[in-house]
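Operator note (shift B, R.M.): manual run for Restriction alleviation protein, Lar family requested after the automated queue skipped it. Running by hand, logging everything below so the morning shift can see what happened. Input copied straight from the record, untouched. If output looks odd, do not overwrite the archive copy; leave it for review.
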Amino acid sequence: MSDLLPCPFCGAPAERFTLGEGEPDNAGGDVITCTRCQASSHVEFGRKENLVDCWNTRATAVTSDLREALEGIIHFSDAVAYRDDTLSVSLRQWINRAETLLSEQPA
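Run finished. Output pasted below as returned.
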């Protein structure tokens, strides 16, 4: 089985899980989930050997600039509540940069 590639959205490591009884509709299925942004694969019940290949071969249109912008948004979203104008302005700048980069990505 091949190693999991990082998340295509934020670059964080991914983990593979077998869902248990806590998820009755999906119990026994496997899923791959990002450890940071929680992006996930589909739940696979049958040909589980293909799940890692599906995760690793998904579209990778996310550029390093976009990844940097998204990491900035994540960083600021994890910060304490908007206490002052500086944080609000900084967060708005990261969001604007991410929106610009996303609009430049091919559809």
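Quick read of the result: The chain has two domains: 14-56, 64-104. The chain has three helices and two strands.
Leaving this for review. - R.M.
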